[in-house]
Amino acid sequence: MIVQRRAVTAVLAAAALLLTAGCSSDDGGGGPPQGGTTPSGTSAQSSPSGAAAEETPPAEGSVKVVRTVTEGLNSPWGLAALPDGDLLVSSRDEGTITRVDTETGRKSELGEVPGVSPAGEGGLMGLALSPDYASDHMVYAYFTSASDNRIVRMLYDEQKPSGEQLGAPDTIFRGIPKGFIHNGGRIAFGPDKMLYAGTGESGEEGLSQDRESLGGKILRMTPEGEPAPGNPFPDSTVYSYGHRNVQGLAWDGKQRLFAAEFGQDTWDELNAIEPGANYGWPEVEGRSDDSAYRNPIAQWSTDEASPSGIAYAEGSIWMAGLGGERLWRIPLDGTEASADPQSFLEGDYGRLRTVLAADGNKLWLTTSETDGRGSPGEGDDRILELEVS
């Protein structure tokens, strides 16, 4: 069922946010829109794994909403798929993790994560399952504490009663700068079984270019939280830098990493990530002629995107838009956009937070109307099942 949104309500909500926050943040601190959607003319170089020829997806794709999986979620943020097909979803503001039966939509709470201190854009955010989940049953979470942003892992014991199934958190990584805005929050295990984390600069722009800071970075670490072997800077978890607020991470079929990033006043970005590369913030926003910085492969005006989660399916990156209230498809040719980005579901379900690849051509998509910046209606928030091409 398509949920009709009221444009007037959305405009009033955006105006109120501008007055209270000083800029239209949508988790990115964006401001007045300028320009339109454009693919980039330049991109990061392909990794060696992408050297072989590959099929380019068609310029035009499609999206079909198969069904609403579940409703009534509060500030859903992170999403992880269990081996049996069920989903784990985090509540940013409640600090809880809930299991969703994808067949029936039934929700059961695992428990509350201790130490979460929600405020502004902070709280319980990204989720990821251990690469060895079948044997260790570990769930990883990124959250804002009273002093920082950190990553913990917890044992998920399905044999215990609902609400008591999370073990004590083991903090594997701490010290990521926190702020009322720009806390990053996405975590994901890559094809190399290393843990990647997107961080924000917490509103302090200078952190992004400081390689000694963990703010405004993509981090790469072992499952124990140590700098991963092969990282570009010695004894550092920093994998790439010069970011503003990264909340989308995904790999394509050639194991190449892509990341979505909130802009400020002009351009939101989709970047192809290379180890050690500098993506420019705050020196540049969007594309530039300065060869010191990597250009995005696609960019959007801030009212069209405010991107959070991304996923890879059917030869394209699929990107959820918060302020843009739509799902973007970016067809790929290696590490370049092969055609203009294409949008779907514009205004149908409101703010879109997280998109996760499922089996075949399926995606899971979460809405984000209850995050304090939306206009929640009956049933919000929800998880949708999509078929894409």
Structure description:
With 389 residues, the chain is mainly beta. It has one domain: TolB, C-terminal domain (Neuraminidase). Helix content is 5%, strand content 36%. It is built from two helices and 26 strands. The strands form six sheets. It has a five-stranded antiparallel beta sheet, with no helix packed on it. Strands 19, 20, 21, 22 and 23 form a five-stranded antiparallel beta sheet that branches. It is globular. The model is unreliable at 1-24 and 30-52 (pLDDT under 50). InterPro entries: 6-blade_b-propeller_TolB-like, Glc/Sorbosone_DH, Quinoprot_gluc/sorb_DH_b-prop. Residues 24-61, 366-389 are annotated as: Disordered. Keywords: Signal. Residues 1-25 form the signal peptide.
The number of domains is: 1
CATH architecture: 6 Propeller
Which bin fits the share of residues in helices? under 10%
- Whole-number radius of gyration? 19 Å
Q: According to CATH, what is the class?
A: Mainly Beta
Give the beta-strand count. Answer: 26
Order of helices and strands: HEEEEEEEHEEEEEEEEEEEEEEEEEEE
Major β-sheet, in short?
5 strands, antiparallel
Look at the structure and name the CATH superfamily: TolB, C-terminal domain
Instruction: Tell me the span between the first and last alpha carbons.
Output: 21 Å
Quote the beta fraction. Answer: 35-45%
Shape call: globular
Query: Average pLDDT value?
Result: 90
State the low-pLDDT regions, or none.
1-24, 30-52
The strand order across the widest sheet is 1-18-17-16-15
Structural class: mainly beta
CATH third-level topology: Neuraminidase
| SS element count, helices | 2
Pfam families: GSDH
Biased composition (Basic and acidic residues): 379-389
Domain Glucose/Sorbosone dehydrogenase: 73-373
Keywords: Signal
